[in-house]
Amino acid sequence: MTALTRQVTEIQSPTIEYGLLAPMLVVFGAAVLGVLVEAFLPRRVRYPVQVVLSLGALAVALGMVVTLADRVEVAAEGSVAIDGPTLFIQGTVLALSLLSVLLFAERRVDPGGDAFASAASSLPGSEDERTLTAQRVQQTEVYPLVMFSIGGMLLFPASNDLLTMFVALEVLSFPLYLLCGMARRRRLLSQEAAVKYFLLGSFSSAFFIYGVALLYGYAGSVRLSDIDRAVSEQVGSEGLLLAGVALLTVGLLFKIAAVPFHAWTPDVYQGAPTPVTGFMAACTKIAAFGALLRVLYVGLGGLRLDWQPLLWAIAILTMVVGAVVALTQSDVKRMLAYSSIAHAGFVLTGMVVVEPAGISSVLFYLAAYGFATVGAFAVVSLVRDAGGEATHLSRWAGLAKRSPLVAGVFTLFLLAFAGIPLTSGFVGKLVVFLAAWQGGAWPLVLVAVLASAVAAFFYVRVIVLMYFSEPAPEGPTVAVPSPLTAAAIGLGALVTVGLGVAPAPLLTLAEQAAVFVR
Amino acid sequence: MSDFPWLSVLVAVPAVGALLVGLVPRRRGVLAKALGLAVSLLTLGLTIVVALLYRAGEGQFRLTEQYGWVERFGLYWSLGVDGVALALIALTAVVTPVVLVGGWDEAEPTGRSGKGFVFLVLVLEAMTLGAFAATDVLAFYILFEAMLVPMYLLIGSYGGPRRSYAAVKFLLYNLLGGLVMLAAVIGLYVQSATLRPDGGTFLLSELVGLPLSPQAQYWIFAGFMVAFAIKAPLWPFHSWLPDAAGEATPSTAAFLSGVMDKVGTFGMIHLCLPLFPQAARDLAPVIVTLAVVSILYGALVAIGQSDMIRLVAYASISHFGFIVLGIFALTSQGGAGATLYMVNHGLSTVALFLVVGFLVTRRGSRAIADFGGVQRPAPVLAGVLLVVALATLSLPGLATFVSEFLVLVGTFTRYPVAAVFAVLGIVLAAVYMLWMYQRVMTGPVRPTTEGMRDMRGREALALAPLLALLLVLGLYPKPLLDVINEGVAPTLSQVGVADPEPVQPATAEGASG
To answer: Which of A42, A76, B246, B340 could be disulfide-bonded to A80 (CB atoms 3.0-4.6 Å)?
Structure first.
């Protein structure tokens, strides 16, 4: 009896550094509060409360990330790493989430209300759905969902052990699966996208957790630093290690949509409600790249000679397939999906060199890409006809005659994607290619340059359509957005030009951030 | 006063002017045009100041200024002019107002306002001036690439029926070249890490004399040359120019071929020669061959054209061949001749595109066969076309003769066979120019050309300065040639070549002995 009490008293309570985790706690707290709002507040006040709560929490979290800058520490008993890359990615994700939530809250462009179904559970085409639409019911569950997902994205790149990373992966993924299926228009397409995303995402999660199990078998720990030590001491069976690394990497490459794990991207991007697509294309990809960076650099740095050739192959495949297949697309959302695949390839080009320059170039590229992406999808949500968004490219013909401003901004984003100088995309490509070449990966740079040339073709094709083609007689109209969307597009454009003309401050920041805590 | 950033101001004036034009309301098209013209004239005035300050200065690059842009990887807003750059800056400053006046009404048939046209031309002028003045390789590259976008919009927005095809072809060709050059620029930067342990540099002043292995030189040189050969354009990378020029409005085509393409040949003499001397020396025979092919191919195809604008475009390809030939002859006469040719070709080709444009606008057709006997109803127009045609075929007394002669002399001392073949280009030029003149202007007046308006005040105003310059530079090229020689001489010494010794003909020796 006495022995038992002594044992009990000896259990140490874990120390949690709440200050370091504050950004995540604020976002998760807002998400939980959002659920309570859904449960207890009357329907008519939910929308303003949810929007203010989400935007406020994101802004506060962003402010906290800024105050945490320069901290390099391990928190929560070693399972969370707060360091340069974590904070840079958290800051980027939070800023882009702010823009995305602005798009979620847009209720003026669609005559039915926002971009989401009145009730996700109502059958498409049913009486139920018609009644809800006629009553102009608009649900607000999307806000807690997206906040949970953002919380997961903040934890994902910060995870210092593989179990935390897995939990973060699931927390960020599950709300996304739901959000994908909630489109107001073309609901069957949207639900199909959700099911596809869920099934393939579950597979990739299974791969990931299987990889974690094998690595645990190899190293006796899921902590990245322990795995690193085990790799350098060469304990255990190498087969276990390599199989574990392969499975783990597959799970991560799925989230960044690298070829050959990209098959879900076009369908999901096309089917999901456009604000969700923009959010996924920007934030999910950035968070997943953060996690991949940490796993490869911190946990498996000693194994780089084994994974580098593989990553070379995947980077080349991703760039080439993304750029070439995008050529054949006739839907603007699918085209942007393939373009995002190609961009993942460019980022991987910077990642294959295990150097600080590689990290900082990747961080910069992700930020530049993220703002252009959210902006581009925001513009897509404005071009509409009677059936909702007019995403078929032929419908975009002559758009510049109808709305020179919208066409001009979209052109800016496309030029940034194509990497034309004086836009953020050029600087991103430049730093990534520089880092890759300095690390000796010049063949990758050559492939990347050729892929950029191919990619330029389909971006230019859209510009041609918008500017030089005659508008169709019953073409789409450009909806006049509320200040929310206008702000998101304006900020995206501002950052795209700003980073193109004066990239020095963010480059310096990314460079200072390029040190992992171990 | 000497610290005043004259070159930055020179670049900023058209850029700010473009923004101001952008703010003019859409309906006030005339105001936008007048404002644009005033800005371009102000730029011309500033250029004269820059030229005077250059004359008063010392050293290879003068009026230098340098500000950190992204110092972290050695990107500087670094400007400076040598003789070559100054000549081309002057060309740009002269041609821009001419193009604005010449293209005054061109936007109207497309139903678009002239405002966009003026805006894009001024943006292009700013970027072109910046590219000529940049002494940081990456800054040059940024402007070199960025200027594709306004030109693309100019071709695509205001051109003929197949303009969108032509614009896309133009952009993709040049973008491909530009991206290859980007890889070469990055490669050069990585190689320059030997100069600066903390990374590398893009500054021309530091990169000149960078020790590079022959292998590296060849590859990086090739990367730069592909971009410049596409831009120039050199055979076999030329096929975008006839389409782009043919579909663009005449004034756009004039700016494209007269000024913007010179950035390509400027890049060859300004970057390729001093940065990669060994590659330039070793690969010069290859490029000289391509240049001769360009000269003959462009001229032969020009003879076969039935479309006036395309004829002028192919003539340009032939002339770009001369420019490249002069640069890669690697002699002081060749280099000076090529640079002078860039200026003279700019003047003559802009004039030619504009005159032909005036004809096309009157008749509503570009086919030579649709004209005939125009000299009777429009004698002044015919006279101007004749002078410009004679300038194009390098008649002695007109500016182009001096430069073409210098190029041929400079080439002959090193590559006699190439020079002999290149001379054929002059003969062919006489064929295509005079034959076009004959078919368009002489003969009986056709019903369609009867009563064709003669040259109006605005048109004459646009062409007068060009004709005057062609004549003055033809009779007295010395001031310009002196400036150019100052720029070419250091470049050639960086390449490490001396002019070949003149060969004493055996008969001369026999006669004296």
So the answer is: A76
Bridge partners (DSSP) listed for residue A383: A478
Tokens 């004209």 identify what position? B371
Mutate to test the interface with B, among A447, A464, A501, A506 (most CBs of B within 10 A): A464
How many other C-beta atoms lie within 10 A of the C-beta of residue A195? Answer: 14
Is position A390 within any domain?
yes
DSSP character at residue A352: S
Q: How far is it, in rounded angstroms, from Cα A335 to Cα A72?
A: 39
List of chain A residues whose C-beta atoms are within 8 Å of the C-beta of residue B68: 504
b/e code B246-268 from CB counts within 10 Å (16+ = b): bbbbbbbbbbbbbbbbbbbbbbb
Nearest CA in chain B to A419: B179
Is A422's CB within 8 Å of B142's CB? Answer: yes
A433 vs B: CB within 8 A: yes
Burial bucket for residue A402 (CB in 10 Å: 0-12, 13-18, 19+): middle
Rounded-to-integer distance, Cα A219 and Cα A212, Å: 10
In-domain check, residue A517: no
**Cβ of B172 and A508 within 8 Å?**
no
B471 vs B476: CA distance, rounded Å: 9
Could you give the number of structural domains in chain A? 1
- Predicted confidence at residue B110, as pLDDT, reads 62
Are B94 and B469 spatial neighbours (Cβ–Cβ below 8 Å)?
yes
List of E strands, A301-449: 383-385, 388-389
**pLDDT score at B510:** 43
Q: Average pLDDT, stretch B20-27?
A: 84
| A450 chain-B contacts, CB cut-off 8 A | 179
Nearest partner of A66 among A42, A92, A41, A45, judged by Cα: A92
Q: How confident is the model at residue A5 (pLDDT cuts 50, 70, 90)?
A: low
* Residue ranges per structural domain of chain B: 276-498
pLDDT at residue B27, rounded to an integer: 78
Q: Is B67 part of the contact surface with chain A (CB cutoff 8 Å)? A: no
B51 close to B86: Cβ distance less than 8 angstroms: yes
Distance from CA of A16 to the nearest CA of B (A): 38
SS3 A16: coil
* ipTM given for this complex: 0.86
Distance (Å, rounded) from C-alpha B480 to C-alpha B428?
28
In a domain, A10, yes or no: no
**Which residues lie across from B70 on neighbouring strands?**
B75
Spatial distance between the Cα atoms of A439 and B335, rounded to a whole number of angstroms: 39
Q: Is the CB of residue A456 less than 8 Å away from at least one CB of chain B?
A: yes
Q: Please, are residues B122 and B100 in contact by the beta-carbon 8 Å criterion? A: no
A106 touches chain B (CB under 8 A): no
In a domain, A191, yes or no: yes
Task: Compare all CA atoms of chain A with the CA of B165 and give the residue at the minimum distance.
Answer: A464
Q: Find the CB nearest A504 among B72, B171, B193.
A: B72
Looking at the complex, report in whole angstroms how far the Cα of residue B425 sits from the nearest Cα belonging to chain A: 35
Give the end-to-end CA distance of chain A in Å, rounded to a whole number: 41
B282 SS3 class: helix
| Coil, helix or strand at residue A482 | coil
Token pair belonging to B183: 């890889």
Give contacts of A427 with chain B, Cβ < 8 Å: 70
> pLDDT tens digit string along B36-45?
999 999 999 9
Q: Write down the residue that tokens 């199989």 correspond to.
A: A243
Handedness of CA B357, B363, B367, B368 (dihedral sign): negative
Residue-by-residue DSSP string for B46-110: HHHHHHHHHHH--SSSEEEEEEEEEGGGTEEEEEEE-HHHHHHHHHHHHHHHHHHHHTTTTTGGG
Domain hosting A289: range is 15-512
> Across the interface, do B71 and A468 touch by the CB < 8 Å criterion?
no
Report CB contact under 8 Å: A437, B172: no
Would strands B75-81 and B62-70 be described as parallel, antiparallel, or unpaired? antiparallel
